[in-house]
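User: We ran a pulldown and think these components assemble together. Before we commit to crystallization trials, I'd like a predicted model of the whole complex to look at. Sequences follow.
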Amino acid sequence: MDTRPVLMKGIGEADLRSIDVYKSRGGYEMLERAVKTMQPAQIVEIVSKSGLRGRGGAGFPTGRKWQFLPENGEPRYLVCNSDEAEPGTFKDRMLLEETPHQIIEGMLIGAYAIRSHHAFIYIRGEFLRGYEIFRAAVEQARAAGYIGKGICGTDYDLELTIHRGAGAYICGEETALLNSLEGKRGEPRLKPPFPAIKGLYGKPTVVNNSETLSYLAPILRNGAEWFAGVGTERSTGYKIVSISGHVKRPGNYEVPLATPIRVLIDECAGGLRDGRKFMAVQPGGGSSACLFEEHLDLPYDYESMAKNGTMLGSGAMVVFDDTTDFVHAALALVRFFAHESCGQCTPCREGGHWLEQMLERIVHGDGLESDIDLLKSVSHQITGLNLCPLGDSIEPFLSSVVNRFEDQFRAYVKVPVAS
Amino acid sequence: MTATSFEELAAALKPEADAIVAQYEDSRSALLPLIHRFQDAQGYVSADAMRTTAEWLGLSLAVVESTVSFYTLFFRRPVGRYMLQVCRNLSCTMNGAGAIMERFRERLGVGHLETTEDGLFSYEEVECLAACDRAPCMQVNLEFVYDLTPQAVDDMVAAIRGGTYPVKPLAQTEAPARSWHVSKDAVPRVPGGRDVPDPNDPGGIGDRTGVIMLDRVVRDLSPDRTRERLVKDGRELLERGH
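Assistant: Here's a predicted model for the assembly, 661 residues in total across the polymer chains.
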């Protein structure tokens, strides 16, 4: 099975950071074709037909997102989201460090398609190396006439600005990202209005993930039918899956959507370590609920995951074997969300800390039997009551492992004895 | 950093700052980039840096400080020359991050969010760094280190102490305190609230100075520095004839 068919092609073989190498493999040809021979609306149509959905986590159809932009003559902005921080996800960092021109070309095609003249990329603060590589690539692209005034000799102008974050998971949420880009605290905004109507500086804005944008050039090259022909009717094309945890070969694997989970774990990631038994897999990043043995033959696509009470999210798959202490695993994720809550919404801000304190108490042997029910009750009271999805992300993993491995939680708590 | 040298730094940064501001439709967008530049130069975000950024962008100091305080990579107090940030999230935890964190704490003699007394190391346990395929992982001054083992921790600490570690040290314009973290817990709480004794409670303390000083000692000062400070203050009081 080819696990580097499109975006990952050539990584590790050629120095794709060099614009000459990238161009020798067909790079920037699609940008040139787009700005010279295509109308923006044509590109929107091709991308809509391809069925491409947002690869950052939400899975929203990219073409439809673009079509929400109002025709009001206001300037529009394209923002590339490279603030990758969803636990278990490490694909955007790879794209940034290994094949930055693919992101740049995608940003340029996307910006042209929505008729924007200023694109931004928001790079996670921790990715200093990725930022430096990307900055060098932008300079190369600018020198080659792909960024700035009169791109490829046409009258299309586009400025590209790189913006570095400074440590905040929440800035991956698109409205928090826009606030951060405006020099504010990275607190999510109340929606509606959605960014397509009022985004950066109050102007119509599209925020797309770097993997999403990277697929634009391959889609233009091979056609909407090519992409739509892979996967299922509603989950089309390829997806980079970051597999980690208790597997032999953790890494990024680019696969057709709807590849069975078992194939991803056993064939791509080399299966579990010798002598270990499979216990669970978290299929879509830290925010997703676990799946278990009975789910291993499910196709890995947006619909199948949703139907089984979880999500595909950012495509981060964490595999757990029988050495896993799920109480500690739950603590690690709950502590993460408690730490990353921006603090605007009470259920998320307070609830996360309550859960963290309860789990701390449990792992230290001070928990009571009743704490197990309390965990479930508190986590359910956080969900659905917040401005953004962060608060809602605390419950799924926790509930799924408390329900499935309640014995592990029980082993930690004190059972009251009648005196 | 003395006033003059900060002014020199600000003057040197001004042309770059103007170029940064020009990249955005609204000058406030330059806030994070400017603070990054100042931190690179000073090793932390000084009050001068925030005041100057506020002035350049036409913002109030409160707005700048509030924004800066939101982001974990902005250090509002001086830190060590090597910022060690070890991932404590899921994939790393499941692949031995616990032993790595324990070894660092042991070797450095400090805990989470603390700086060693020699000002060489700052240590923090952080969230997912997007290198789960090479767990357990960490960053040293934002450079990735993968596939950690306790032995690798020992080697790294020794190499940094010996001056042979290949990562560039951070700028350090001021001696760091015990912790750079300005936590909400460091703010004295309302009397009667959690952790603070009620002044009306016969068992409590009426004057909160003690609580505030204790907080400073625990968070900012090492035992040795506390002793030095007490001796110095005591001597001064005696000299003044108290």
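The CA atoms of residues 369 and 418 of chain A lie 14 Å apart. That may be worth checking against your pulldown data before setting up trials.

User: Thanks, that helps.
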